[in-house]
Design goal:
- A hairpin with a 6-residue loop joins strand 9 (144-156) and strand 10 (163-174).
- The protein folds into 3 domains: 53-189, Sandwich (Immunoglobulin-like); 195-305, Immunoglobulin-like; 311-425, Immunoglobulin-like (Sandwich).
- The radius of gyration is 54 Å and the shape is rod-shaped.
- The strands form 7 sheets. A 5-stranded mixed sheet has the order 2-11-8-4-6, with no helix packed on it.
- The chain is 12% helix and 53% strand.
- It is mainly β.
């Protein structure tokens, strides 16, 4: 019995030993798993044993073709040792190149410190959109220090009475071979929208003085490298060219991507007395870039105004000078002048039928012939005055008809409507010409004669 009891105790001890052994193994495995994890560093990412020059920031990073701008770079010593005599040599490329000094020098950059430097760069006008890298060669020295004994001081310790020799030291810098590295900065070149005027057409093709509702079609195109939005064009009209009606001098285009073009239409009236010449009408174009910045450019539209004959009535009169109701064979002399810029061919003058005008023309038209600019001629028409015409001034229409100068290739037919006042006088001075008035006077005269004759007879 005692033997069995001893064996049982031994077994229990073995089990306890096995349990503790297993637990110890598990604990070792548990802690060993943590030992493989990285220990958080208390120092910056750059090694504390060396200096390291980097560029941490560039402003601005976005440039446009043709820009010449100052760029600010943040240069940092991302290491634990000081750096001295840092030189940044900028290497130009075909697209982006430095302007002025190409080397920037920094005297000292202590460990973990940074400094801003400036450099002027230029972007080629024809640069395409994209990111362009500018190489920078960086050289610097990483000085090391050593302690040098300069001299010794001998002194006796007053307490102990022992004489001591104390060395006096100083720190000296040692400059080994310079360090170098190649850095680089990347610029994002974004082109601008460049709005220009392309093809121009007009309807009619040949613009003449006095033309109305002339249609001008203009091609507006974006020849730049970036999109333009909210594009709007407006003709700057003047006294010679006016909008045909409200709003016909402006056109909204909207968005124009790079290389796109759109047709816009304007309608204008041409003044009557404009001279034959080529005129430039200013065209104001406003737009925004994709960032919302507003731009305004001025372009021009060339308009050729061709010559055209034009007429005015210089003077007119009638024979006889005073005309009355019932007059026949009245001659109307109308003197005209070509005030245009072109010879007028086959000129003729004729009367037009007007309501409430009591004139019956026997000779309605008169052929004049050709009239050069500023040349005059008198046309003669004939008419009868209605018997019941009231004494007043009447507006008589006169039409002048001609063709253009065929020698200049102008086969157009031109019509000019003018008005002249023709007065009808009363039959006797100070009296009104009333229909039947003469017959009434005759009756009154007969009545008076009859009364006088009757009295004499008594």
């Amino acid at each position: 019995m005692e033997t069995n009891s001893g064996n049982g105790n031994k077994n229990k001890r073995k089990k306890l030993i096995s349990f503790f052994t297993l637990s110890l193994v598990c604990l070792l495995l548990f802690f060993s798993s943590f030992s493989s994890l990285p220990v958080p560093s208390l120092v910056p990412t750059g090694t504390a044993a060396f200096s390291s020059i980097t560029i941490t920031d560039v402003h601005p990073l976005e440039l446009n073709p043709g820009d010449t701008k100052e760029v600010v770079l943040t240069v940092k010593n991302n290491g634990g040792k000081d750096a001295r005599d840092i030189k940044l040599a900028f290497k130009g490329t075909e697209i982006v190149s430095p302007v002025g000094p190409t080397v920037v020098q920094i005297t000292t950059l202590n460990a973990w410190s940074s400094k801003d430097v400036k450099v002027m760069v230029h972007v080629k006008e024809e640069a395409q959109n994209g990111i362009y890298n500018v190489p920078i060669m960086c050289d610097w020295y990483e000085p090391t220090t050593k302690t040098v004994v300069v001299y010794y001081i001998t002194r006796t310790n007053p307490t102990t009475g022992i004489t001591e020799t104390i060395p006096q030291t100083k720190t000296e810098y040692d400059f080994p071979e310079p360090k170098s590295t190649e850095l680089g900065i990347g610029f994002n070149i974004i082109g601008k929208g460049v709005i220009n005027v392309g093809n121009i057409t007009t309807d009619p093709t040949d613009i003449k003085p006095g033309d109305e509702d002339v249609e001008i079609q203009v091609s507006i195109e974006n020849s730049g490298e970036a999109a333009a939005k909210d594009v709007e064009a407006k003709l700057i009209c003047n006294a010679d060219f006016k909008p045909s009606w409200s709003g016909t001098d402006r056109s909204y285009i909207g968005r124009l991507n790079s290389g796109d073009s759109k047709e816009v239409t304007f309608h204008i009236d041409v003044t009557d007395n404009i001279e034959s010449n080529t005129y430039s009408i200013p065209l104001q174009i406003r737009y925004k870039d994709t960032k919302g910045e507003e731009y305004e450019v001025m372009r021009e539209i060339s308009i050729l105004v061709k010559p055209k004959p034009d007429f005015e009535i210089v003077s007119f009169y009638t024979e006889p000078g005073n005309i009355s109701a019932g007059d026949n064979g009245v001659e109307l002399h109308v003197r005209i002048r070509n005030v245009g810029s072109e010879k007028a061919e086959s000129v003729s003058v004729r009367s037009t039928g007007e309501a409430e005008v009591p004139f019956d023309f026997d000779v309605k038209s008169d052929y004049v012939g050709n009239l050069k600019p500023n040349e005059e001629w008198t046309a003669v028409l004939k008419f009868d005055v209605d018997k019941d015409a009231l004494p007043k001034a009447y507006q008589q229409g006169i039409e002048i008809r001609c063709t253009g100068d065929r020698d200049l290739g102008d086969d157009n037919v031109y019509l000019f409507d003018r008005m002249i006042p023709i007065s009808v006088s009363s039959n006797s001075p100070g009296s009104a010409s009333v229909p039947g008035f003469g017959f009434l006077i005759s009756l009154i005269t007969l009545f008076v004669v009859f009364v006088l004759f009757s009295r004499r007879k008594r």
